[in-house]
Design a protein that fits this description.
mainly alpha, 73% helix, flat, transmembrane helix
């Protein structure tokens, strides 16, 4: 009993630490190398609305740290445990790509990027698309794939260079097709078994 309570308290403290760290990154850091700030835009930076994923993750994780003190329910377990951690896993991969670009590439200017930058950006977009496909094909992790598609659409909206702009859109559409495939597969499994199947088994 005491061990279980300790785990729950540690979950609460971990959540508060994560929340505090991210709030600091957004509002207090200097932002010079942070993908959260307008001060260091790159040629792969997505539109600001993409970062709303953090809010959804924190909201669901906050629900989890409250829910853990009550009796379990299968649907609530799916929404407050599987979904936020799936979102978080995919979002960390996105942040890793954005952070690497913020560190190693020049800031975005009004001039067109050089060819080498375009090539590197397209490779990064293909990596994100491959990750989205892996989420669906390897584990039918629909929520993780949605994060990647959401980011690709955000890059399409934000970037004006034709190569980057249209590459992001095409890959976002392919990612969406993969997501639809995953949803259809999930529906077919549910219909065949007559049982509830999670979004990310």
């Amino acid at each position: 009993m005491a061990h279980g309570l300790l785990i729950k308290v540690l979950n609460v403290l971990s959540y508060l630490f994560l929340l505090t760290a991210n709030v600091y990154s957004v509002f207090e850091g200097d932002g010079s190398q942070s993908p959260y700030h307008e001060s260091h835009k790159t040629y792969i930076s997505p539109a600001p609305f993409v970062f709303g994923v953090w809010g959804l993750i924190h909201f669901l994780l906050g629900g989890f740290v409250i829910y853990q003190f009550f009796a379990p329910d299968d649907v609530i377990v799916e929404v407050l445990i599987h979904v936020p951690f799936s979102l978080y896993h995919a979002w960390i991969a996105v942040i890793l790509v954005l952070s690497v670009f913020a560190i190693i590439t020049p800031e975005k200017t009004d001039e067109d990027p050089i060819v080498l930058v375009k090539i590197v950006v397209v490779i990064a977009l293909l990596i994100l698309k491959g990750l989205s496909a892996t989420y669906i094909e390897a584990g039918n992790d629909i929520t993780g794939a949605i994060v990647i598609a959401w980011t690709l659409f955000g890059i399409f909206v934000e970037q004006e260079d034709p190569v980057i702009h249209w590459s992001a859109l095409v890959l976002a559409i392919f990612s969406t097709i993969h997501i639809i495939k995953g949803i259809v597969d999930l529906f077919n499994r549910n219909r065949g078994s007559g049982e509830y199947a999670p979004l990310n088994p």
